[in-house]
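Recall the central idea of this unit: under ordinary conditions, the amino acid sequence of a chain determines the structure it adopts. In this exercise we apply that idea directly, starting from the sequence alone.
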Amino acid sequence: MRRLTVVCGLVLCLSLALVGCASLDRAGDHRLHASYSRDFDLAYRVYLPEGYTRKDQRWPLILFLHGAGERGADLADLERTGLPKLIAEKKLDLPFVMVAPQCPADRWWDAPALATLLDHVVATYRIDPRRVYLTGLSMGGTGAWMLAAEYPDRFAAIAPICGRTLPLRAAPLKDMPVWVFHGDADNVVDIWNSENQVKRLREAGNTKVEFTVYPGVDHNAWDRTYADKRLYEWFLKHTCRDDRD
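Accordingly, the structure predicted from this sequence is:
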């Protein structure tokens, strides 16, 4: 997977306008002026798979949400951990487009801002909208739960890692394929968060929930999760059409 870096500022109010954005699906710096109710500046980095230059193919997309430690204004910080780190170190070669936004230093993940970004990425890159996947770690795991609950029809499957879950509702995710990961020695986000959400999903009738617990593992449940290609194989088993029929 080769890296394509795109810096994109998002200012959210009531409409969406694009300035100077020709050929946005290749390297370059671009600015997206979007709006809905409150300002939220969001930069992001895009990683493209080998073969993306072929014009006759649409690609699956992974939206990755980082943890609290990667918030800020330097996109290089994204590659300190998680999926961007593995890709930057050439330890993964995945058949996905991957987009990794960076949350500003003084903010938490904002679902409408992320949905606006997702709309833009799907429209700009050659993405198969039936194969959009969501994952995140720690604060990003919390963001993944939140975003999927707000926009369940946008994702074919989600994989939250060691995220907080309260007061999230389970009902919007009753048909969503979900694979949850947590270490049972986590002293930052107690494993109860994942255990409780898995329980509520199953009580809501979700039969597509998988839960992996790492014995003796602390908060870092993401290194082994993202290094395991079974996660990406599992993603590709699901499409929005198949899983919503």
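The chain is about 25% helix and 25% strand.
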